[in-house]
Amino acid sequence: MGRTIIDKLWSEHRIADLGDGTSLLYIDRIFLHERTGSIALKSLEDQGRHVRNPEQVFCTMDHIVDTTPGRGDATRVPSGTDFIKTTRTAAHAAGLNLFDLDDDRQGIVHVVSPEQGIAMPGVTLVCPDSHTCTVGGIGALAWGVGSTEAEHALATKTLVVKRPATMRVSFDGQLPYGVTAKDMILHLIGKYTASGGVGYAIEFAGTTITALPIEARLTLCNMAVEFGAWTGVVAPDDKTFEYVKGRPYAPKGEAWDRATEHWKSLVSDSDAEFDREIAIDVANIVPQMTWGTSPQHEAGIDQRVPDPRNEPDANRRLSMERALEYMNLEPGTPLEGIPIDAAFIGSCTNSRLSDLRNAAKVLKDRKVAPGVKAICVPGSSQVKLAAEAEGLDRIFTEAGFEWRESGCSMCFFAGGESFGVEERVVTSTNRNFENRQGPRTRSHLASPTTVAASAVLGKLADVRKLEPQE
Amino acid sequence: MEKFTRLKAIAAPLLRINIDTDAIIPSREIKRVSKLGLSDGLFAGWRYTEPGGRAEDPGFILNRDPFRQAQILLSGLNFGCGSSREHAVWALAEWGIRSIIAPSYGGIFYANCARNGVLPVILDNDTVEELARQISENPEQHLIEVDLVERTVTAPDGVLHSFEIGSADREMLLEGLDAIDVTQKRDDEILAFQSRDRLRRPWIYL
Ligand code: SF4
């Protein structure tokens, strides 16, 4: 029987079979950030342990750093500076590759890692951060771990991992106008729930995936964890190779030829069998919008807020009721037209150059609606520089968006800056959990173009109804 | 790491689905680079009436007797989904929770539990609801016994339910092992892998 891409990546990194479906896996690369990396490094040091291969360990500052222009080590998050300084000292002491605040390689870990060629096809990469699965979009086997497991990976270059079941999600057809990778993954989660992928490693495949640019594949895999999956991966292809080529940590010369030769084998065999298969025809997907406090609480923008009374499952009904109360929404309200207070474009899901370009197409020669606070935070310093080089920053600022330094910013609330209490935010991020973007803030997840269109109209909007500006 | 073998203790039912780690410990409650001092922030958004405040919400289960002394938590599907922050487990453990019983878990959270002496038990949804029902209907009967040696849960009414757990996780919990120590015994194998792999995939080695 043929082997899936997941089988291949797994066996390539297996050092020992520990029985019971558990393996000792070799970890090629480790990424850290100041929020959770700090504690892993400190704890390792306290135990007198060493980082095994520091040259393969990377660290960035993204979670707590301030994103207002002219920032330094000072943070709005109480005691945030302590996280930054602890990380810096520990990273230097351990000899890691550190992308510090003043380094133009700094940015959100999952944006930086493919950008610098650290995440590549076929590598195993872990980070104490749940969205590490993002770089599955480039054909890496990458997953989020806790701090203790990060310490294990740092000290031994390995992890003890129970083999996940395999799932193939096939998206086929041509994406309709206004529909993006973000809408695809929200649609999947809405249909199969936020725990639909628990216990699985997922290969995203099909004609739609083949046609997706790399950055869109990263968006798609980013939210595999929101589907409950252990990770998601897209088989590397010519587009992937083209994306990786020439990046700072990518192989060069003869090594490049050998690497690509190898990467071509990292595809599922035609007779490979998955434990579960899901097929989705993208023709039926419309721009998506969440209405509740779990990514599974979502619907097409042309739909209404659902009525919990129609939900047969008692647990889901309860969670819907709680969500509607938190979101202050009445069943039956059309999603399109719900007034908003703020709009946010950023996060490891949707803050790459293509995301900003797409949003800028909507914003060009338009203005953010009066009273709407609109913020754009590029995913990395590289993205910011590239966007500024082509004038995207001016389109954003002229429309009324704030233009910031890169970082996680208001994707999550750590005690510093936030959206206001009970403010309604349309956001290109990945989590609409209670209090995620601020105390009692109400978050609606959507694609960057939908966020841009909503910012312009001052309400949740159907981007398909706004003419794009060329 | 603290060992886990058997525990008979008060169980608190918190049967919501998709309880995420942001809810278990909000980011704003993670104030220092430390694994300690987190129990105060456990479920802060639900436990206290105001964000950042400390006035207890009497409606929240862990603010009520006898559940203030709970060492077992019953919960719904996909407990601990979301952010990888291990602080969620550290906060639960510091507060006093030694075992969780739920139909499924966020994957990273599950792995974090086993590495911190907290036993994540998987029982099907109907069973978890039945346990919760027994506790709610008869508050005198709020004791559940979790036995990792036998891999069983004894309900308040005495009925036994078995559960499964990976042998590596089970052994780590039973023995209170440090996973790094265990792996470091395989150092030769790791080094041998690296030298083979360096020939096969030289581009990986910076
Ligand atoms: S952007 Fe948001 S989701 Fe992504 S790593 Fe940062 S905090 Fe996490």
Verbal overview:
The complex is a heterodimer of chains A (470) and B (206). Chain A is of the alpha/beta class and 470 residues long. Chain A has 15 helices and 19 strands. Chain A has two domains: 23-160 and 238-258, 2-Layer Sandwich (Aconitase, domain 3), CATH 3.30.499.10; 289-465, Aconitase, domain 3 (2-Layer Sandwich). Chain A has a five-stranded parallel β-sheet, sandwiched between helices. A five-stranded parallel β-sheet of chain A has the order 17-16-15-18-19. Chain B has a seven-stranded mixed β-sheet with strand order 4-3-2-1-5-6-7. By secondary structure, chain B is α/β, with parallel strands linked by helices. Chain B has eight helices and seven strands; from the N terminus they run E-H-H-E-H-E-H-E-H-E-E-E-H-H-H. In chain B, a hairpin with a 5-residue loop joins strand 6 and strand 7. The interface between A and B is large, with 77 and 59 residues. Bound molecules: iron/sulfur cluster (SF4). Iron/sulfur cluster is lined by residues 62-63, 108, 129, 131, 347-348, 408, 411-412, 429-430 of chain A.
* Main beta sheet strand tally, sense and closure of chain A: 5 strands, parallel
CATH class of chain B: Alpha Beta
Number of helices of chain A: 15
What is the CATH topology classification name of chain B? Answer: Aconitase, domain 4
Report the top-level CATH class of the largest domain in chain A. Alpha Beta
Q: Biggest sheet of chain B: strands side by side, in what order?
A: 4-3-2-1-5-6-7
Helix count, DSSP H or I runs of 4 or more residues of chain B: 8
The SSE order of chain B reads: EHHEHEHEHEEEHHH
Counting structural domains of chain A, the number is: 2
**Biggest sheet: strand arrangement of chain A:** 5-4-3-6-7
Question: Largest sheet of chain B at a glance?
Answer: 7 strands, mixed
